[in-house]
């Protein structure tokens, strides 16, 4: 059973690694670009694509190339969301697809940006739903693009570092111990599961903190908020 698990995992990793590095890197960049674009991020699992692509990294050059491509893809997607919000925001919000997102989610994003300003942009990169709605919501606000990009860039870099580093290190570590450690396959799967659980827990904690802030009445004073125009 242990050998079967190891063979299966190695076969998957070998398949990912066999994909042309340039194609694999571009695919990850496109995936995260779509994931961070308005509304598309609700259906495209960009984080999964990046994590899988990271397991194919074979050297420092590929690691850096993937990291840079993912960051640029994320920034490109969020910039598209911002531009759509600036030029077509109300029409998108009231479109058929926008109505399916739910007015409550739109209000939640708008209120979060209004109360938290740049901090909302940074934190939203790590929150489900909001990571797709906040860029277009900011585009509809008074926040200039240079301020938006200044807040979202470090968030995208941190996010990319987390996923690319974990995926590449986990795969390399597994290959090194697969032939010597009996339960290497289970350790690898366990590490992936723990990583996924950790991501979910952090997102839930951030989401709850954001929800408490959103629902707190009279929280718009200058001591606790940051104007999007600053």
General description of the model:
There is one protein chain. The chain has about 230 residues and is mainly alpha-helical. It has one domain (about 1-215). The protein is built from 10 helices and no strands. Helix 3 packs across helix 9 (about 145-175) and helix 6 crosses helix 10. It is elongated. The N and C termini lie far apart (about 60 Å). Mean pLDDT is about 80; it is low at about 215-230.
Which secondary structure elements does this structure contain, and how are they paired or packed?
Elements: H1 2-18, H2 21-35, H3 46-54, H4 60-93, H5 96-101, H6 103-116, H7 118-124, H8 130-139, H9 145-177, H10 184-215
**SSE sequence, one letter per element:** HHHHHHHHHH
Largest sheet: none
Which of globular, elongated, flat, extended, rod-shaped describes the shape? elongated
Tally of helical runs:
10
**Strand segment tally:** 0
- The separation of the N and C termini measures 60 Å
**Residues in helices, as a percent range:** over 70%
Which consecutive residue ranges, at least 5 long each, have pLDDT under 50? Answer: 217-230
Structural class: mainly alpha
The overall number of domains is 1
**Mean pLDDT over the residues:** 81
Gyration radius, in Å: 20 Å
